[in-house]
């Protein structure tokens, strides 16, 4: 009996995973390394007092009730400034090879500090943001608990926000269940949509657990993409013509929630996005029926959304710098 159990166990370990031959892999659940840091990061993520107006938080543009985006073509910044580019989802962003559409931030920590000091976004300074936090005993106690320091620094702030964002993964989509062997998880049309997605060459860019985020690609490989948006992609950093219109490939996880699509937000529906990408990237004009099948597949990528208790933020004090919502 013991020998039989041992053989079964060894065969189980040796058996390849159901998804081993697929270009897409299931998303693993988040592993919390430091619960206290994650909780502090969650508070900072939702705290609008890190902005000049006292109104804009990380969650304003990356709303965790809306797929980690704001569902706007381009985001609204301080004093209702129109943002230059569409806000990518924060969900599963820890799987990206870099952050922002042009990859100018190497990781979540580097990204977290950018919007705070951007005059078109939160319009604050790192120094003032830290002053705000250090004026509140509640925050000082939490930073002391997590970092062992009496006062917060911007490095601590970005470390904590990044730690929280690393937990924002969305496992257990219907597609993941199908990958793991539950063949009833997808309908016939959804499976046909996935096959069409693969056979068209879409998985050359959209692959891995995040179904994207792994590379930078030119928007308009087969035909030129016409847009009024001024974003140049990686060329804005390198100045090279070869990098013009080259953007980080977005994740397709939860894509039914993260509309509108593309860096300029011009595609307001999944159907339109699939149609445009087919023509521009793989040189294929999909029929309405084919588009419907691919869209059906894409909707199976919606996973379990982050679910947690909203944080209660420490109260401001008489010494807390006052917001300037109209300044």
What can you see in these coordinates?
36% of the residues lie in helices and 2% in strands. The protein is mostly helical and 327 residues long. A two-stranded antiparallel sheet has the order 1-2. The chain starts with a helix and ends in a 28-residue tail after the last helix. The N terminus is likely disordered.
Q: DSSP strand (E) fraction?
A: under 5%
> What is the overall silhouette?
globular
Main sheet makeup: 2 strands, antiparallel
Order of helices and strands: HHHHHHHHHEHEHH
> What class do helices, strands and sheet pairing give?
mainly alpha
Name the quaternary structure: single chain
Mean pLDDT: 95
- Spatially, the strands of the biggest sheet line up as 1-2
Q: What is the terminal-to-terminal distance?
A: 77 Å
Number of strands: 2
Number of helices: 12
Which value, in Å, is the CA radius of gyration? 22 Å
Low-pLDDT residue intervals, each spanning 5 or more residues: 1-15
Helix percent band: 25-40%
Please summarize what this structure is.
The protein has helices at residues 2-14, 35-46, 58-61, 108-117, 126-134, 137-147, 154-165, 174-179, 188-199, 235-238, 270-281, 288-299, and strands spanning 216-218, 246-248.
Give the helix/strand layout.
Layout: H1 2-14, H2 35-46, H3 58-61, H4 108-117, H5 126-134, H6 137-147, H7 154-165, H8 174-179, H9 188-199, E1 216-218, H10 235-238, E2 246-248, H11 270-281, H12 288-299
Antiparallel strand pairs: 1-2
